[in-house]
Amino acid sequence: MHFVWGGVLGAGLGAAGYAGIANMKMRDWESTLIQAWKNNVGVVDAISNLGGRVRDFTEETSTSYWSGAARAPLGPHSLADAAAKAAPAVVNVTLQGGSQGLFNGAPSGSGVILDPDGTILTNAHIVAEALQQRRQGGGGSRAAQPTVHVALQDGRVFEGRVISADRLSDLAIVKIESAEALPCARLGTSAGLRVGEWVLALGSPLHLQNSVTAGIVSCVDRKAVELGLAGPNSDFIQTDAAINSGNSGGPLVNLAGEVVGISSMKALTADGVSFAIPIDTAKHVVAQLKAHGRVVRPYIGIKMLQLNEGKASMLRRADPAFPAVKAGILVPQVSPGSPASRAGLRPGDIIVGYAGQKAPTTAGLIRTLGEQVGKPLELQVLRPGSPGEVSINIVAVEAPS
């Protein structure tokens, strides 16, 4: 099964150079896990989960969704009510001029207004050419330079300005100026999503503005490596809500009308297999872009595998020497000369705690390391053949962009 990142969604109407095709591969997880333990072969790259708390936006984030809307019976207008709440903040983003024109394949996608001041979140691939021109100093004639046009649901059109973007997460911030306060979306949380929950995808597929499709959450943590995506990509929300060319950057919302994801890509050769960036990831990216103009990602030079009781039991059956743990982070591989190697971390180690966390997750560790780049972080590690826990102080460096 083939997947298209970006190219089919929004930029598929003309943006060149961003589509990436990958194959989904079925894995024999049991043999892979045993191989990871026996041969120190990495199973899952230490991908950067960018989910985190964003001070600017979490004050407006609802915490009552699960105690309210989710428990209410699904009525004939439940989906329509959710769409009506989110729709005014959904925009159509079109890149005009430059190497492409409106009628010969202008990159087009969607976006969502985060703040009444005109701050918009969209996909980076939609505005990639405009961002590149800005970084190069905007050389050439004004007519040849790409212009970002932002159309609101009520018909108003603004010229947008690309503030910053992060290629790895495929997220960008665009700003428009308005004399009046603009409608903005209410951000939810992706942490509480459940498989089978109803969601809506809003956007402008095929230049058809103000379109809404509905479906359910098919998977809440689809791994980037399962989609053949390399690098520090976060997990994705998988949904069967129709996401088509032009939906890129548009919101995925729950029945409370809260944004829980940003539409990102779809399966090229199948219907009902689409993916969105979790909104908790997007919040963190936005905060990093606003604070630093870039996303600061940590590097320590390891591969990680999240352990649960089932995986640990499987590995223990394969090797009785495997520590008696029910949770933790297995380190199958350590890069020579890396910060982890210099700190004394070894292949086969199991991280069972850090910074007071006794149920560590790969996402949580990466987030903590990212907040402490250049500062020591103490890890509690179980090591085969060593009695008790071993304490290791590790200092993350910023990963090259």
Q: Mind explaining what this structure looks like?
A:
This protein folds into 2 domains: 2-25 and 51-292, Thrombin, subunit H (Beta Barrel), CATH 2.40.10.120; 298-398, PDZ domain (Pdz3 Domain), CATH 2.30.42.10. It is 18% helix and 30% strand. The chain is built from 8 helices and 21 strands.
Describe the biggest sheet?
A: 6 strands, antiparallel, barrel
Low-confidence stretches: 5-30, 39-69
Order of helices and strands: EEHHHEEEHEEEEEEEEEHEEHEHEHEEE
Structural class: alpha+beta
Mean pLDDT: 80
Provide the CATH topology of the largest domain: Thrombin, subunit H
Number of distinct beta strands: 21
Proportion of beta-strand residues: 25-35%
Shape: globular
Number of helices: 8
CATH class of the largest domain: Mainly Beta
Distance between the termini: 30 Å
Give the radius of gyration.
22 Å
Reported CATH architecture of the largest domain: Beta Barrel
- Order of strands side by side in the largest beta sheet? 9-10-11-14-13-12
Could you say how many structural domains there are in total? 2
- Helix percentage: 10-25%
Pfam family, one: PDZ_6
Organism: Coccomyxa subellipsoidea
Protein name: PDZ domain-containing protein
Keywords: Hydrolase, Protease
